[in-house]
Amino acid sequence: MEDWMEEFPGAVTVSDRDHIIVYLNAKAAKTLAAEGGKDLIGRNLMACHKHRSIDIIERIFRTGEPNAYTIEKKGVRKFIYQAPWRKGGEVAGLVELSMEIPFDLPHFVRD
Description:
CATH class: Alpha Beta
Number of helices: 3
CATH topology: Beta-Lactamase
Number of strands: 5
Shape: globular
């Protein structure tokens, strides 16, 4: 299953229930190269987040509700989607998708 994710153009980061990073695709590893890239696998993702982000991650684990937002960094706009993944119906970890998006992203209402 992870084969398609490796070359996915967005960054994919996956942690387990104990906040240990268990997977980074190539884009995530490149984005996080200064912090260790693929060597981050096996490390606690809470160690590289600020207090506000830790609170959000803990809320995702507690409620099972996803968190989504956009950011702009170094002239690049990104959509961030963080959601729990489940095993046997229980929250088993966190998946974060980070994808570059255009500044003039179209929005359609389809009723």
